[in-house]
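ok so dumb question maybe but i'm new to this and my supervisor (M.) told me to 'just get the structure for histidine kinase' and walked off. so i did the thing. is this what she meant?? sequence i used:
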Amino acid sequence: MIGKNFYTQITFRVLFMVATIFFAAYFFNKAEYLFLAILLTIVVVQTVSLIKYIDSTNRKIAYFFNAIKNEDFTLKFPDQKNVTSFKELNKSINRLNALVQEVHIKKQEQEQYYLEILKQAQIGVLTHNKKGHIMFVNPRVEQLLNYTPLNHIKQLKKVDNELYELFDEMKPFERKLFQLTNERETVQLAIKSTEINLNKEVLRLITVQDIKSELEEKETDSWIKLIRVLTHEIMNTVAPITSISESILSYYKEGEDATTIENFDQTKLNNTAKGLQVIKDQGNDLMNFVQSYRSFLSVPKPDKKIILVKDLLERIKMLAIQEVGFDNDACTITNHHPELELFADEKQLSQVLLNLCKNAIQSMLATENAQLHIESGMSSEGYKFIAIKDNGPGIPQDVLDQIFIPFFTTKEQGTGIGLSLSKQIMQLHGGSLNVYSIPNKETVFRLVF
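this is what came out, is it supposed to look like this??
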């Protein structure tokens, strides 16, 4: 229906023009030049009329699309009965115009809705282009940085020059922690970056979050757990000393006075000697415990150099498989990138890997078909990693969140320092040590650089 009248008009005009040209040719053959001139004039008029007719339609459609492009929805074409030739076309364009206007309004409402959410969010959101011009920033960012208005990331120099360098140098999917101090307060910021494509332009989206309260909560929780473990270890050592001391003291006192030599016999002397030996051993254990604590607090700064991961893992395997009761063939290595290199302290990194491998082997001594697998490569985010996997009994969920606490251990002869020391070494390397475990199926310790 849209083009019915239009096509009828075009067909009629073309046919009439062809008929006129036919008669003009006829009069030309008859040498009737007067009629020929009249008919040729009519052809010219018909041609101009046809061009204007088609052009008016084109202009009308062009006006419509230009109006849509400029978000002008006030354009309306006459669709009354007295405009018969374009009535259906005009009606269709007006309906389309109304539909586009409705979609546009809904889109604006949705954008306003999301914008309001971003304004109320407790996480700061900032977007800037490659030239540093800030395209969007919500009030939370300006509140956290105590600076407004933000139009360009170079303005961050006025807040903190190191913060500006961090924003300027951040790579996609990178996450950084930054402590910002101003005249009001000190905030601990978690800053994360990603890239988005918008209208064929690459924009950097940065989120800023104040994690000070979360860190304080975690710090308090860590202190409570550490104090609980220290109290447990110290009490286990001191309690026998107190009990044995009281027993020995009873040999040497009668009421408030010291006992006489006549009251001593060989049995009491032997018990005294045994008790003092136990006190000495417990004292040594307590000294070793304190020494472990001191070693945990005094990890030297890494002496980094380039390490070929493939060679490092082969050495670790040779050292780890010496554990008594473990099948040497049950340890395998997979290097997804054989030429992978790390810039790290080889001695410290070897200490971490050997500790993890030995822990895995010891946990699998009662496991049938025990398997230890060491894997290295690059993650999908571009980070280098080394993973230690085993199919032992695993780590219970209630223990999993405590294994990195200093001096916490599930071993009878363990000091509880190995995993916490390993985690600290990885943090000194700018990396992390993560773990997940499915009991009786798989346990994975993952070193991420």
